[in-house]
Amino acid sequence: MDQAEFRLRFNLHPLATQDPAAIPHLGLRKAAVLIPLQEIQGELNLILTQRPMHLRAHPGQISFPGGKIEPSDSSAITAALREAEEEIGLCRENVEVIGTFPAHNTFTGFEITPVVGMIKQDFALRLDPGEVADCFTVPLSFFIEPQNRHRKQFLRQGRYYSVHFIPYQQRFIWGATAAIIDHLCRHLSLPEEML
């Protein structure tokens, strides 16, 4: 899928007012992530990061660039762009924001707003070793295929939760990142007669 097809699919569907996979509860810490889309040889790829093992929260997990919304951030979009610049060296001026998805609530206590952004031109990765151990791309076409996205019910503290996961090569994408990818792919899915 290239940029033109992505824009067509993204804009044909109205954005939902809430994430259908959201877990409702109060007192969540607000965070934002950037879903960075980069066209590589005519195909859109998602940029993902892997968190270092020394971090207290979510060590080693694969995620989007992002983090807590700070008081100095004017919006979730501002926070996502700031975090992407800090974590992987992606300048905010190099990102065209396409839109945001409804906040995704996690059972770990976060309300995460996904911000969809198209990277305007190639850039040199500059990883913050305190936040990012690795950075890699995955073709969006891999995620679009429904058989590559999985969901399973898990019991935690007496309550069942739906956990998304996506194996990719030697990597394992799961939790909020996989749920956000699933939401994006379901949003982009169109019946063949509409294409």
UniProtKB/TrEMBL annotation:
<dbReference type="InterPro" id="IPR045121">
    <property type="entry name" value="CoAse"/>
</dbReference>
<dbReference type="InterPro" id="IPR015797">
    <property type="entry name" value="NUDIX_hydrolase-like_dom_sf"/>
</dbReference>
<keyword id="KW-0378">Hydrolase</keyword>
<protein>
    <submittedName>
        <fullName>CoA pyrophosphatase</fullName>
    </submittedName>
</protein>
<keyword id="KW-0479">Metal-binding</keyword>
<dbReference type="InterPro" id="IPR000086">
    <property type="entry name" value="NUDIX_hydrolase_dom"/>
</dbReference>
<dbReference type="Pfam" id="PF00293">
    <property type="entry name" value="NUDIX"/>
</dbReference>
<keyword id="KW-0464">Manganese</keyword>
<feature type="domain" description="Nudix hydrolase">
    <location>
        <begin position="27"/>
        <end position="160"/>
    </location>
</feature>
<keyword id="KW-0460">Magnesium</keyword>
<dbReference type="GO" id="GO:0010945">
    <property type="term" value="F:coenzyme A diphosphatase activity"/>
</dbReference>
<dbReference type="GO" id="GO:0046872">
    <property type="term" value="F:metal ion binding"/>
</dbReference>
